[in-house]
Amino acid sequence: MTGGTELHAAEAVDDGGSLPTFASTDAVKLWLSQRFARETDQEQLLRVTGAAVGTFLGAMRVSYGEVDSIGTGLIVPLDWTRDGVPTLAGNHWFDPASEFAGLARSGRTIVVEETDAPPIAGTTTRAFIIVPLIHDGRPVAIFSVADDRPRRWTTEEVTLVSQTGARLWSALQHLRLTEQLRESEEQFRMMAENLPGICWVGDSEAKPLWGNTRWHAMYDETTAAHGDGRGVIHPDDLDRARAIWRDMRVNGVPGEFQLRLRGRDGIYRPFASKATPIRDAVGTVVRWVGVQIDLSDQAAQDRRQAVLRSFADRAREMSDPIAIMTLLAGMLAEHVGVEQFIFVEASHGKLDEGTMYRAIDGAHVTAFEPTLSAAFGAFAVRPDPESTFVATDVKSMADDSPIRISALAMGMRSGINVPLIRR
Questions:
Q1: Low-confidence residues in the chain, pLDDT < 70
Q2: Cα–Cα dist 385/377, whole Å
Q3: Chain centroid to CA 9: how far?
Q4: How far apart are CA 169 and CA 151, in angstroms?
């Protein structure tokens, strides 16, 4: 036996209340019914049940234990005892071939009014009621009341113990299932929040019940927040989306398709949309779960890769550096919107003395801004000269900064500067 928790009458109710004085077994049942309905803590449920039954019956001990998976051990998390009576909380082994084990498997309530052979050796038990609780044909728990003196148990007392044991097991199972459901819901939320897209749960008609953070960022203050997609689906995609959704709902089947959706910023983006029905035990669709993945990032990545492949293919046979630079400047202007492209090759490690190339809107120009040399010199003496330098607005830089002076002289407000290092 391992250590456990001993509970006395004065400790039975730790939520600020106290046990009432019960006039009858029916009063005990009614009070416990109310506690079972509102109690959310398994240990407290065991505490108040043991205290109510034990105090009313004037018993020595009230115990609840669960049979282990192989049917040879009884695990008692805590028990209620009269003051001065030691606890039996812990793990107890019993012989599956014993008479006690056979009686437990039968499911019949065991009532003993006087004995010199207690069911657990070493205790002072002289009378007891043991209620085996059976589920799916095997013992799952035992609820018992014991006294250290012989006594004649009344029919009402036996019924109280028997019914309380069965209801206690059911109540504990309900709390465990509720906790498992809560944990499952939390795991689902964590997963949904970390998905690279929009995730939502809807009712049987797919009207939104819950959405992850990305869903709210996309659809709050739009018609989609109330289940109406007309305000967010591109007009050219609306009829097709309605037809697909109609088929999915009528037939209760999953589906996926691509369409353009407009967020709160008013911009339409391509999305891959997928939804799956969730059914109850009899097969009725009770929920829809869906995800929507923004394809614009992937599309942009595909375009960038296409530009790079095109540049590599076209420049492969070129040998003139100016021609290669002009090809690159033109492609950046066309596909990325780069207005000015500047390349400088350092001379003996000095950028401000290097050879420069400049293009405007993809066209090579030979005129150079005199301040460029000083600007590139400033890049070279930065604390981390090998890192990419991004200027979102050069006007935010110091007035005497060579970079600010040169950029404004060329009509530029922002830029990206990438150092190319030869090892």
A1: 1-17, 195, 297-300, 336, 349, 351-354, 368-369, 379-380, 422-423
A2: 10
A3: 41
A4: 26
**% of residues, the chain, pLDDT over 90:** 31
Q: What pLDDT shows up at residue 300? A: 67
With beta carbons less than 8 A apart as the criterion, state whether 118 and 108 touch.
Answer: no
Strand pairing of 350-360 and 363-365? antiparallel
What CA–CA distance (Å, rounded) separates 80 from 82?
7
Measured N-to-C along each axis, helices 372-380 and 402-409 cross at an angle, to the nearest 10 degrees, of 140
Q: Is this structure's pTM higher than 0.70?
A: no
- Joined together, the tokens standing for residue 265 give 């910023």
Of 77, 78, 65, the residue nearest 104 (C-alpha) = 65
**pLDDT tens sequence across 204-245:** 988 888 888 888 888 887 877 777 878 889 999 999 999 998
At 10 the pLDDT is 37
Q: DSSP assignment, residue 413?
A: S
Q: How many CB atoms lie within 10 A of CB 286?
A: 13
Q: State CA 377 to chain mean position distance.
A: 51
Two structure tokens written together for 281:
């035990």
Q: Cβ distance 157 to 57 under 8 Å?
A: yes
Dihedral sign of CA atoms 23, 26, 29, 35 in order: negative
d(CA 49, CA 143) in angstroms, rounded, equals: 11
Q: What is the DSSP letter of 423?
A: -
Contact 1, 133 (CB under 8 A): no
Strands 78-81 and 5-7, bridge-based pairing = parallel
> What's the rounded Cα separation, in Å, for the pair 133 and 170?
10
Any idea which residue has 């205290």 for tokens? 51
Spatial distance between the Cα atoms of 88 and 245, rounded to a whole number of angstroms: 61
Contact between residue 164 and residue 170 where contact means Cβ atoms under 8 Å apart: no
- Cα separation, 205 vs 277, in Å, equals 10
- CA separation (Å) from 290 to 159, 255, 270? 51, 10, 16
Q: Return the pLDDT at 5.
A: 43
